Amino acid sequence: MSSYMLAQLQLKYGFANLARYEAAMVTIRELFEAQGISLVAGTVTQVGPLYEAFNLWEIEDQGHLERALNAMTLGDPRALEAMGELDATVEHEQTRFLGSLAFAGSANSA
């Protein structure tokens, strides 16, 4: 059974903020992937609340994110710059930890 983390983020309004968010997430993705956290999907709403982003990450278990954050070199200038950009472009973030259901099979088998 796979475990996932779903991050739901309300971005500040505007295409410029969306572009800044996407650029920062390139670095965040690299940092997470170096810790074994895989991005399954990164999306933004096209209908509904504007500039709402969803990132689905595959993780080992609920403690994986905490272990990964503790292992990251957050003093890395790239990490600091990316986190600063996220602070400037994200209004609100909500995180959920999810488990897969048996009928869904493996996300990588499709």
Automatic annotation (TrEMBL):
<dbReference type="Pfam" id="PF07978">
    <property type="entry name" value="NIPSNAP"/>
</dbReference>
<protein>
    <recommendedName>
        <fullName>NIPSNAP domain-containing protein</fullName>
    </recommendedName>
</protein>
<feature type="domain" description="NIPSNAP">
    <location>
        <begin position="16"/>
        <end position="103"/>
    </location>
</feature>
<dbReference type="InterPro" id="IPR012577">
    <property type="entry name" value="NIPSNAP"/>
</dbReference>
<dbReference type="InterPro" id="IPR011008">
    <property type="entry name" value="Dimeric_a/b-barrel"/>
</dbReference>
